[in-house]
Every structure is written in C-alpha cells, then in structure tokens.
Amino acid sequence: MRFSVLVFVLVTICSVRFIHENKAAENVIDQQSMDSLWGARVIKLRAENASRGQLFDQGNYAMFIHWGLYSQLGNKVEGKTYYGIGEWIMNQRMAGIPVSEYKELAKTFNPIDFDADAIAKLARDAGMKYIVITAKHHDGFAMYESKACDFNIVDATPWGKDPMKDLAAACRNQGLGFGFYYSHNQDWTFPGGGNGPKVDANGKTATFDDYFEKKCLPQVREITTQYGPIEIVWFDTPGAMPKHYVEKLVEVVHQNQPRAMVSGRAGHELGDYQTLGDMEVPIVNIDGLWESVDTTNDSWAYAWYDENWKSPKQILERLIACVARGGTYMLNIGPRGDGSVAMRCANSLRTAGDWIARYPQVVYDVGGSPWQHALPWGDVTSKNKTMFLSVFQWPSSGELYLPNVQQDVERVKLLCDSESVDLVCERRGKHIVIKVPAKAPDPLASVIQLNFSKTPIIDPVLTIDPEATTRLPVEFADVEGLKKSEKRWMEKFGEWKRIVHGHEFNTDAELSWEVDVLVPGEYQVSLDYAGEGRLVWQVGIHGGKSIQNQQNSSHNYQTFPIGWLEFPESGKYRVFVQCLEGDVDQASLHTILFDPVR
Q1: What per-residue confidence (pLDDT) applies to 50?
Q2: Of 11, 411, 510, 547, which has the most beta carbons under 10 Å away?
C-alpha cells in the first residue's frame, strides 16, 4: 500500500528554507489540482468518491481520536494522579470509580472548546486521510445522541450537543473519510455488558444478551445510519464474546454502510483487515490489509501530566515504517475534557504533515519495501518500477548504499519541495552506490527517487552499512539451544511495548544472522539486552574471529558495548552471539548493533 540529484545550490536553498521556518485509483492523488487549504500542496482524496476500503488501502495515514467522559478527569481523581491510559481511569486497575459516581461526572461535562472544523483541518494539515473517533468506549458513555441509552453526551450533560454530527460534516468538507470506534464487548456501566454490572436497576440478573439487544446492537445501527457515509467501524476488545454476536454486528455494518470496513478487533477473524497490537510498528513486511494504531504521546485519552510527545521526525519514522512494511498507520490524539487539542501535539502533527505535503508520493498509494525491512539509513516505499528512499541518517561520506539490487538504475533524483536534481550512481558488485551532497537537504528526512526500466529484483539479506548504525533484531536471527519468542509488557498501565527476544540461554546456545558487509573494516559491536548481574558475551564470525567481554545488566533493556570486530573483506558472513557466563538463563537479548569505526 503505500527522490533527482541536488547540486550544491539546491541543497543550500532547502537548508535556508528550513532555517526560516495498493491499487491504482482515479482521483486519489492529483498533484496538479491543488486545494487552497494546503496551498500548492494538497492531495485531493474525496471520501464521497472512494470505493470500499480505498481510503484505508491507499491513504495509509489516519487520525484516531480518544475523547470521552474520562477526558475531563485527565487521570486525576480526588487529587490523586493515576499514571497510565486515561480512558481506563474508571476501571478497578486504575481509580476504580463506582458506576454511580462515574455517571455523575456527566453532569459537569461541558466541552465548550470542542471545534470539529479545527480538528478536521488539523488532520488534513497533518496529511491524514480519515478520522476514527470513539463513539462509545469501555465506560459505556456515548459521545453522540443515542436513543438506545440516555447515558450520552446530549441527554446526560449540560452541553447537550452531538459533536459527531459536526465532525462528520467537517470531515466531508475537508475531503476526509470518517469512522467510529465502538466498544462492542466491554461496557462497564450498562447491565450485562462485558465487565459491567451484573444486575439491572431493579436488581434482576442481567445477561450479555440483555446488553447486546438493548444497547450494543441498537447503537451500532445508530452510528451506521445517522452520520452519512463512514469508512470504518472500529470494534475493540472482543474478549470471549460469542461469534454469533460479532457476525450480527458485522452484518449490520455492511448492510447499512456497504463501503465501510470493519476492524480486525471485531473478533473471530470477522474483520476486513488485521489490526496489530497497540503501539506496535512491525519490522518485517506483512501481507494483506493491516494497520498499526499508535498515539502521539503515551496515553490514548487525555492525561494531564503526559507531555511525552512524539517529535515530527518520530512520527514520520513510524508512519513510513508502517507504509514500507505494507500497512496503514493510524495515529491518535486525546483532546482535553473541554474538547481542545494540546498545542505541542498539533505542532508535531502539522510539521510532519508539511513534510508529507512536499513528498506525497512517498506515503500515499504505494507499496512496501522490496527489502522487506528497514535499511540502516532509513526506509523504502515503492510503486511499480519506482522506489522512494526516505533517508533519516544522511551519509557524511557522500555515498549512500543500496544493497543487493540486480537491475541497474535508470534515473536517480534527489527531491526538495517541487524541485529535483539528478544524482549520479554506480554499481559496485551487487550494490548500487548513490553519490549524494555532503549535507542532507531536508532536516527531517531527505527523499531520493529511483526509476528502473523494469521492476527491480532485490535480495533482502540483512546488510551492515558502512556509515549508519546497523541494528540486527533477534526477530531475524536463527537460534540454536535457546528460545526465540514475542515479549509484550506495559511501561505504565496500558502503555504497551513489544519485542522478539532470545532467552533461556545455556553456555552452548547461539543466535546467528546472515549479513552482507558492504565495506570491510572495523565495527563497534554493542548488544541490547536485559538480565541479572554481570554477563559474559561472545560475538563472532563463523569461521573467523570473535570478541568477548563482561558487562552488567538491568531488568530493562539497555545497550552495552562489547568491542571491535573486523570484517576483512566485503561479502556475506554469519555473525553469532553467545552468553557464556553469569546468570545466563535470565539473559534476554533483543538486538545486536554495528557501528563503523572511523
């Protein structure tokens, strides 16, 4: 799904400017017909003309919004701050607010600063193609006018307005798609809902069927019939919800909104695409339709203390990584209880969006990288016989390596805004070396476009770059005598981390990677690992030299230097790692890193 070489003059122009400041579809990307909202940089993508799933499949970038009754608390209850994801503040694992007390909060919920037009324009300025917002989260409070249950923003609050009507209209005005998040299984305030009250107001036992028939199904009918065309219904946390309930919901969505997609978290593999784990950005290409959901700071919903915002560069790195792996990136904002959006969040999104507006061909209606993983200096998206290189680590030597490409390049261009200049490249054995200016033309990521006469054939073997730090995750390793598995944990409540690690070492256990060394020489080797006490590690080359060192360890993953390892000539090697001494069965290896010694 999912740059011609600048001479010195163009590089200078770009630098000065910065200082002062999967299928083809008609009418998706039209750089010629620019809209005044983005000046000369708007890509038109009208939701009304999109076929089913088109925005998802070709837009590749969306805004997620977590906003609800919980937002006015901002993770503070009775003077105490609870650290973690804000939309779970009611839950027993956070503040444990009783149902009756939580419902009382609606009487003071008055989001007078909510501006649907401003939020839609922010999404447009950010380069996003559709918005998905919480119609009802696990707390059961509907953020729209619902006849099925009066615990909603119109009937239960002094504000008394339906913000979803305004946002749906604002999205259409901006040419954006629109969709709803709906917690279909969990409902903590309605009798019979998942993890909700077990009895109704009369003390009668309530079943899940009671919740489903009286609230869930009617509300899904409401959100799919009252807000015009929608692109996605994003169900979440199905838990042990029986299959026939999910089948009915999917049927209703497709009946009422034939163009709408159903998220992979509907359950029972009944969604239209796969949704990865929260905050998960994959490191290897994934087949089929899929999305990564991430957030601009640590919490999904507003938390008063959370100022840990992703920078524009981090946003672009994660967005392009998802597109280059063949997927879609949906990035969340959490408006405050008054409906306003944090300025730091908005500024990061707009700055990243300005980059996207300069290089739209990198992100929209393109496919994944033919290398199937990131390269040490950045990442690659592609379309037919064209590649777009997003270079985050610019080579100071003036040479950028493109490894293991069978075909010769027809043309290479370095892009800078609307300008481009041809670059020179040469073949060195299996590799293409592009001659680039000494200074990166774009401070966030410079873009190089490669054109081939036919679709290039790539050997996706891992490579050790002569300039950029090369990271070899355990996910790509072969293992012998130990285990390799996924590991997920929370930093704070709900803030998920995910890696693949090598663990349960013994002194004979080994992880190894096949690598292609582009330039011979000395490389500093480091290991990223967790463990207990001091550990002795050995890193070496099969049939060649090895190095060995003792370093301390920590319960969290840290990077420790091991030493210098020499590759005497360019070519393919198999490098290995062993844990030889110490509490080896507690060691957990995540990544081996190589930095060229200059």
Answers
A1: 62
A2: 11
